[in-house]
Design a protein that fits this description.
four-stranded antiparallel beta sheet, Phenylalanyl-tRNA Synthetase, Chain B, domain 3, alpha+beta
Length: 213
């Protein structure tokens, strides 16, 4: 199903955003086949496969954020893997998103669509805006890229909110891929293709809508 999602005019010329909605039928805390595929991706990253962190860093630079002080989630995942730690294992839906983000080296937002109340806007966070993060204290949003629904902010490319987090009870997903405008629409579409195919393979996922801006 299509959702109403807009990008604020001041961001539309510097961002490339890919949005995917998906319905899933199978969600597990752990899946042996998925874990094996993710482990292969981790080994490839450690073996010296060149994954370009430039686009995610350019995204942060474009909005005035130092990506060394506040890292894009995709780069944080890559640094974690290259220091010898595995990707976090949360549940199959989150694990697939982290796997895709690692390989695409673009930040992902993953949300339980049944906990999101459209319309949704992507804009800069305002002074004083914050939300309760996942396993974190408050995430402060002033000046950051921020997804907002009718209830308020719920996501950004560094850390998402507890309110819309994806658990094993989720059946409808909202996936947002964040990139700088230098990433072409066709490149974002390929990332969404990869994401949808992995949700189909490991979670019985069916893509219901996509949008690239």
């Amino acid at each position: 199903m299509a959702i109403e999602l807009t990008v604020s005019p001041d961001l539309a010329t510097i961002l490339r955003v890919g949005v995917l909605t998906c319905e899933v039928t199978r969600v597990l805390e752990q899946d042996t086949n998925l874990a094996s595929s993710i482990s292969q991706a981790e080994r490839a990253s450690r073996a010296g496969g060149l994954l370009d962190v430039g686009p995610s860093r350019q995204l942060y630079h474009s909005i005035g954020i130092d990506p060394t002080r506040t890292r894009p989630s995709s780069e944080a995942l890559l640094r974690r893997v290259r220091r010898g730690d595995p990707l976090p294992r949360i549940n199959t839906l989150v694990d697939i998103s982290n796997w895709c983000s690692l390989e695409a080296q673009l930040p992902y937002g993953l949300y339980d669509l049944d906990r999101v109340e459209p319309p949704v806007t992507l804009r800069r966070g305002r002074p004083g805006e914050a939300y309760a993060g996942i396993r974190k204290d408050e995430v402060h949003l002033d000046g950051r890229l921020t997804l907002v629904d009718t209830r308020g902010p719920f996501g950004n490319p560094t850390s998402d909110s507890a309110r819309t987090m994806v658990t094993t009870s989720a059946r409808r997903l909202l996936v947002v891929v964040f990139g700088p405008v230098m990433v072409t629409p066709s490149a974002i579409s390929r990332v969404l293709d990869m994401t949808a195919s992995r949700y189909a393979r490991f979670a019985g996922g069916v893509e219901t809508w996509r949008w690239v801006a």
